[in-house]
Design a protein that fits this description.
heterodimer; A: 193 residues; alpha/beta; seven-stranded mixed β-sheet; four-stranded mixed β-sheet; 26% helix; 32% strand; B: alpha/beta; globular
Chain lengths: 193, 254
């Protein structure tokens, strides 16, 4: 069975592919629903604007595919945000896996948040060996609030979800593929789920 | 808590790292991928690669270098130098760059900023600004600082911000290569007037210069080249010293 990266034309997918490769795994970049549905692990990346990304997903009918996945699925950055019901960015609907609205950071902060922020209250196997106070790299203007599925939180003017989990769906706001050794550890934890 | 970033900058010419003093007098400082790998291991927070001899025929070679960097480096990196179009940006992002830095082309055609932001999003569009004080006024310069313009630095900063730039990389040409500290007053003014992160560049020579850029200059990140290339202040030592001074940076072991 394959490790699939959902290809819908957004994001820095090359880096994710290389990061998985450095861990000794091969991932295929694909928009084929069958291959994605049959994969043993699925990465759902995303960078850019939420509404545009949702439209691209819908054109390929991948919105329905992602929602149906039973294998462990990791949404990264915008990928995690699209798992929510709605986003303030472009006032778009998301996939609705999580019943919450993605919000924009207040203008009291510099937007986007760019850089290394600490993780707090980490929970579960995804964070095995990655403890409180560790740093991950993020670039984003919108955030998922603290919800019952929050498995790690960070602070930027307010506390937000830096990771979530709902059954087989995982999401991280930061970029593990760009977060040095600890980011690689998180990817390995996910691949070993 | 979000930390201040330390960013080594690698000037690239013919696939080698070089560093100019006051933008001239190039010296060879090694293979870019080896250096980048070393910096990532040492705890650099990000890297910048500038293609300083960018021409259309060499662009392809640079894009291949970007792919090699993405293959081996597990921290974010920005690439810049001679980028003039959506196609240029697209090929660099596809090859694994996280952000691109646009300089002269944005001054010549400010609409390019809107186009790039619309296509790729704010988060990956860094506007690099080279400026120099002329008769008491900061003026934007082009072509690696060689060509002066009449454009006021602070007006330009506002404009790029309004057009959706995700970040500003400000280089003071009066300070670049001098190792006498960053242009903290101008930095503080830029940082105060816009709502996006600002990277300080030009003038790093000591730990204190970094402290000043973050405290007086209110910079979100600081970029330097030769002090890192020639190992004058190794990154782990710099970060330890910054932590001692109460500056929040990501420790090397985290």
């Amino acid at each position: 069975m394959e490790i699939a990266i959902v290809d819908y034309g957004v994001g820095n997918i090359q880096s994710l592919k290389f990061a998985i490769q450095r861990l000794g795994f091969e991932a295929v970049l694909t928009d084929d629903p069958e291959r994605i549905l049959n994969a043993k692990k699925v990465f759902f990346p995303g960078v850019g604007e939420a509404k545009n990304a949702m439209e691209r997903l819908k054109i390929k009918r991948l919105d329905l595919v992602v929602k149906k996945l039973k294998a462990p699925t990791l949404g990264i950055c915008l990928g995690m945000q699209l798992m929510c019901r709605k986003s303030e960015e472009g006032q778009t609907d998301g996939l609705g896996i999580l019943d919450c609205t993605v919000k924009r950071f207040s203008r009291d902060n510099k937007i986007p948040q760019i850089g290394w922020n600490t993780l707090n209250n980490t929970k579960g196997a995804l964070f095995s060996g990655i403890v409180k106070g560790h740093y991950m790299y993020s670039v984003h203007s919108y955030y998922v609030p603290i919800i019952k599925q929050t498995i790690a939180r960070s602070n930027y003017g307010l506390d937000y979800s830096s990771a979530i989990q709902e059954d087989n769906f995982y999401g991280v706001q930061f970029h593990p593929e760009k977060s040095g050794k600890l980011g690689s550890k998180l990817l390995l934890n996910f691949l070993n789920l | 808590m979000l930390t201040k970033r330390i960013i080594p900058c690698l000037d690239i010419k013919d696939n080698r790292t070089v560093k100019g003093i006051n933008f001239v007098g190039l010296r060879d400082a090694g293979d870019p991928v080896d250096l980048a790998y070393r910096y990532a291991q040492q705890g650099a927070d990000e890297l910048v690669f500038l293609d300083i001899a960018a021409t259309s025929e060499k662009r392809k070679t640079f894009a291949e270098l970007v792919l090699r960097i993405a293959e081996q480096i597990d921290i974010p990196f920005t690439v810049g130098g001679g980028i003039t179009s959506i196609e240029d940006v697209s090929s660099l992002l596809i090859n694994g760059a996280d952000k691109v830095s646009i300089n002269s082309a944005a001054v010549k055609n400010p609409n390019l900023i809107d186009d790039l932001v619309g296509r790729f999003g704010s988060q990956c569009i860094v506007i690099a600004i080279d400026a120099k004080k002329i008769e008491g006024n900061w003026k934007v310069h082009l072509v690696g600082g060689k060509v002066p313009t009449d454009i006021d630095l602070f007006d330009w900063v506002n404009q790029v911000c309004d057009r959706g730039a995700g970040e500003i990389l400000f280089t003071s040409m009066d300070h670049d290569g001098t190792k006498s500290g960053f242009a903290n007053k101008a930095l503080a003014k830029i940082s105060g007037q816009v709502n996006i992160p600002v990277i300080a560049s030009g003038g790093a020579g000591s730990v204190k210069h970094f402290v000043d850029a973050f405290t007086i200059g209110k910079a979100d990140a600081a970029l330097a080249a030769s002090i890192f290339h020639y190992d004058e202040i190794p990154i782990p030592i710099l970060k330890e010293a910054l932590l001692e001074k109460g500056i929040s940076v990501r420790p090397n072991n985290a």
